[in-house]
Design brief:
It comes from Streptomyces siamensis. The chain is 39% helix and 20% strand. The chain has 293 residues and is of the alpha/beta class. The protein folds into 2 domains: 181 residues, NAD(P)-binding Rossmann-like Domain (Rossmann fold, 3-Layer(aba) Sandwich), CATH 3.40.50.720; 86 residues, UDP-galactose 4-epimerase, domain 1 (Alpha-Beta Complex), CATH 3.90.25. The strands form 3 sheets. Strands 3-2-1-4-5-6-10 form a 7-stranded parallel sheet, sandwiched between helices. A 3-stranded mixed sheet has the order 7-9-11. Strands 8-12 form a two-stranded parallel sheet. The longest helix has 19 residues. 48% of the residues are buried.
Length: 293
């Protein structure tokens, strides 16, 4: 299958592209720079110049493809609204180009936050709060099942990780500890964060592309919920710095999310697709060290 992948050189796209190619798919990767184009080419894909705000580049990519995986997102936590709006317009553009063709459209969403409850594939997306717009965008993708699109959403936990490269939300904790000399957690640190190794996540995106029925929700969750304090302790041990509680404000806007309990499970996904996480856990990757400077 020829697959158009947005965010092809990003933290998740950079492992999804080789996963697809190894399975025999052809990849057209949306890129914004020469460096990103070189990375996609080196992985065996074909670069397509543009970005989420260049709607013509999205149309051009879809026109050449038999399926779409949408991974791109601005991730500017200090200015989320424009990032979410860009995602909304991109989804609408991709949807219009795919309508009625019966082709797969896999979108990267977020596991929902259900206070006092381990979220599952059966729970609705979180559509309020600072990331509520992303939940509404995921619902928009799922609703495309009624428009002749084989749409699915792979919900990602906030910590998509791999040793020595990416740690999701924990990247913020690591950077703060390196800067301040204190490995901090919010409140009493009992709030739980789900996680997945990005190599396991990449395999699930491929499975969704190949086999997900229209309107399917998948959870790319390996660890249901490590406490924030346990994550801070793992970081503090590696960096040899004290571990202390801190105000959510000390982490900026994203600190509001750090205060929330958001465990999640993937039993339905594992049973339905035969997906089993096999790569190191978040705690294992944190304890191993090798943090980026």
């Amino acid at each position: 299958m020829r697959v158009f992948v947005t965010g092809a050189s990003g933290s998740i796209g950079s492992v999804v592209v080789p996963e697809l190619i190894a399975a025999g798919h052809e990849v057209l990767g949306l890129v914004r720079s020469d460096a990103a184009a070189a990375a996609v080419s080196a992985a065996g894909g074909t670069p397509v110049r543009g970005d989420l705000t260049d709607l013509d580049s999205l149309r051009a990519g879809v026109a050449q493809a038999e399926g779409v995986i949408n991974l791109a997102f601005g991730n500017d936590w200090s200015n989320l609204e424009p990032c979410i709006e860009a995602e909304t317009q991109a989804i609408q553009t991709l949807a219009a180009a795919l309508a009625g063709r019966g082709k797969p459209f896999v979108h990267a969403g977020l596991t929902p936050m259900m206070p006092g409850h381990v979220s599952t594939e059966e729970d609705p997306d979180t559509t309020n709060g600072p990331v509520g717009g992303r939940g509404r965008n995921s619902q928009m993708v799922l609703n495309l099942a009624d428009q002749g699109v084989r749409s699915s959403v792979v919900r990602l936990p906030r910590s998509v990780h791999q040793r020595a490269s990416h740690y999701g939300f924990c990247s913020v904790l690591i950077a703060a500890a390196q800067k301040t000399g204190v490995s901090a957690y919010v409140g009493d640190g009992t709030q739980r964060w789900p996680a997945v190794n990005r190599l396991d996540a990449a395999r699930l995106f491929r499975m969704a592309l190949e086999d997900a029925a229209p309107g399917t929700v998948l959870h790319a969750v390996a660890d249901e919920g490590d406490t924030m304090r346990s994550l801070a302790e793992a970081i503090g041990s590696v960096l040899a710095v004290p571990v202390e509680s801190a105000s959510p404000d000390s982490f900026g806007l994203i600190g509001r999310l750090f205060a929330l309990d958001m465990p999640s499970a993937s039993a339905v996904t594992q049973k339905r697709f035969g997906w089993e996480p096999t790569h190191p856990s978040l705690i294992a990757d944190l304890v191993a060290g090798d943090y980026p400077a």
